Amino acid sequence: MRTLQEIVRERIARTASLMGDMDAMMREAHNAEQRMARRTGDDPSLDLFVTHYADGIAAALKAIPAPMHNTVLKSMLMQIVTEWEDVHQEFSNQLTPHS
């Protein structure tokens, strides 16, 4: 069984390998757009959530010196993942009977 880190590294390597093939990169981007459109159609709260954080990231990057952008983006992406997990946990808790 591959670890999560191995899967992430493989996905990064796969994406990097597309850099030399513009047609493959465009197909991948098109497929990702379609998948995202289906995902937000299935869960409109995701679109609201992503829009909120995109606005926050854009505002933060304007206020932060360029050399710190990578660090700030990493931190904000971690916050986004954590917040999305919390939203789903809170929603799931409503569906679970409590004694």
Describe the structure.
The structure is a single chain. The protein has 99 residues and is mainly alpha-helical. It folds into 2 domains: 1-42; 44-99. The chain has 4 helices and no strands. The protein has helices at 4-17, 22-42, 44-63, 69-95. Helix 2 (22-42) packs across helix 3 and helix 3 runs antiparallel to helix 4. The longest helix has 27 residues, at 69-95.
The domain count comes to 2
**Alpha-carbon distance between the two ends:** 38 Å
| Topology as a string of helices (H) and strands (E) | HHHH
**Helicity range of the residues?**
over 70%
Number of strands: 0
Question: What about the largest sheet?
Answer: none
- Helix/strand-derived class? mainly alpha
Counting DSSP H or I runs of 4 or more residues, the number of helices is: 4
Tell me, what's the shape?
Answer: extended
Please sum up the structure shown.
With 99 residues, the chain is an all-alpha fold.
Secondary structure elements and pairings:
Layout: H1 4-17, H2 22-42, H3 44-63, H4 69-95
Relevant terms:
83% helix, 2 domains, extended, single chain, mainly alpha, 4 helices, 99 residues, 0% strand
